[in-house]
Structure formats: structure tokens, C-alpha cells
């Protein structure tokens, strides 16, 4: 549709070309697609029913009834990150941690043995690519809404994040249990219009100058009812290939404002989107810190888990 409309405008401007246009059967496409910017078509809308589970853990939350479920999007081949998380914050016992994967481009990964061993792998049949992260995030929301409403809170957290689960579990007691989402809120985001950018968005895909407030995708926490609200809103919100912005668009449609997570006294961001060098007492005052390789997580965790209370 997008290709046809500018073509039609060009052709209809000239009487000589009009004849050609009629000859090539343009008339029929004119009647089907009016000129001008194409409206958000149904092809831009995502639907949970488009994809199926390859592996699922449908009864996990009903059995465990966790206060918090952490969902980690990770590519199928990255077992190293999954194992590091299992042996560090993800296995700390206070929370339930699950891994959300798609299919690798080759489609050759079989995670069923790992899934039997750990019972924490959820796999769906979409291609696990950077451009499909929006699909993945929406499927995470849908999984939480469908299979984990028994948890009070959910967290979406990337695989390269340090999570201070001890501090987070304390904070959860102060959080509202409905309509609540918190993290590092970005209020002045706008689409990049230069085609060279990794985050390029055309005006066709996103016409507005600004993004609504959204939480940085590295890690954020929400009451589980938000997952269903985002899932429902997503039916009417055309997809953009920036997963955290997309959640922001769905939140706006659902009438939910993300809450910036800062400490009470110092205005410090509790969801640290930068990487910080490990320092036990600095990390004790953050919920997440960004940019950890698996071996680095494994290295710092024993000290942190044993000594974080001595700060
Ligand atoms: C996203 O996943 C779908 C379903 O597997 C696939 O058809 C599509 O090519 C993927 N898109 C990208 C950009 O990888």
C-alpha cells in the first residue's frame, strides 16, 4: 500500500501517464487504496494469537504463587546467561524467574532438555531477532496475564542485568498492587528520523514528534494487572520496532502513567541504566545495574548476597 500510493500520485498528475496507468490496471488499485499517507493497517497490529508455545510452564505460578515473577527475554543460544542468572539473583529464592525465548534463525535449538531440568523456559514460535523484540515483549505481557496473574508483581529484565532482589522485595511492599509500573522513566524521548540510526523510525510508522513516557526496557517492575491492560491495548496500537516505546504507547492507551523509581532522599535512579563498577554498598542502593556479562555476575554475586546487609 505504501509503495502504491506515491506511485499513484505521480501517475495521476499527468494525463499522458494516466493512459499508461489505466493500461497497467492501476485503476483497480486506485479504488482499493486511496492516495495519501496510509493509515495504520491491520498488518501493523500485533496479536498474541499469531504465535504458539513451543515450551510453556502454564502451571508454574498457580503452584508457586510468587510475590514476584521475573521474566528474562534471552536468545535460545544464550544458555550461559541463563545459567549465570539461575546461579545468582534469579535463584535467590525470593522470586520466580523464567526465561522467554523465540526460535533462532536456523531454528535448530532444542531447549526441551534444559526446560525439563530447570522448568523455567518458555519458548514461542517467532524468530528471535532484534526487530522482533516488540513481539517478544508483548508475548511476555500476554504470558504474565494468562499464566501468572497469581503473582502480585512481574519484572521484565534483560539477561545482562544485575538485580538486587533483596532491596526489590522490600520495595514491593510499598508499591501499589494495581495499575502500577515503575523503572527508569524516559519522558523526553523522540523518534530518530535519520535513516542511519539503529533506532530510525519513519513518519509512516510513527508520525508524532514525541514518545509518551516509557520505562527503559533494561528492567522494569509492574503489578501483574498491567500485563493484561497492555495486552488488551496492544490490539489497537500499531507496532513500532522499539519494544520499550511500544509498551509506553500501550500504557498511554490504557491510561497508565509509569512511575519514576528514585530513592526517597537522594534523587537517585534506582534502576541504573548505566554500567557501574561493582561496589557492594553502591549496589545495595540500586534495584538494577546494567551491562553485566555472565562471568561478571557470577563473580560479584557471592560477595553481594553474603554482605549486602553490612552497608
Ligand atoms: C518475526 O517473527 C516472525 C515469525 O517467526 C517472522 O516471520 C519475521 O520474519 C520476524 N521478523 C523479523 C524482523 O525478524
TrEMBL record:
Signal peptide: none
Source superkingdom: Eukaryota
Cellular compartments annotated: Golgi apparatus membrane
GO MF annotation: an example: N-acetyl-beta-D-glucosaminide beta-(1,3)-galactosyltransferase activity
GO terms, biological process: lipid metabolic process; protein O-linked glycosylation
Membrane topology: Single-pass type II membrane protein
Cross-referenced Pfam families: Galactosyl_T
Tagged with keyword 4Fe-4S: no
Major localization class: Golgi
EC number(s) from the headed UniProt entry: 2.4.1.-
Enzyme kind, highest EC tier: transferase
Pathway(s) annotated for this protein in UniProt: Protein modification; protein glycosylation
InterPro entries in the record: Glyco_trans_31, Nucleotide-diphossugar_trans
GO cellular component: Golgi membrane
Alphabetized UniProt keyword annotations: Glycoprotein, Glycosyltransferase, Golgi apparatus, Lipid metabolism, Membrane, Signal-anchor, Transferase, Transmembrane, Transmembrane helix
Family to which the UniProt record says this protein belongs: Belongs to the glycosyltransferase 31 family.
Protein name (Swiss-Prot/TrEMBL): Hexosyltransferase
Organism: Muraenolepis orangiensis
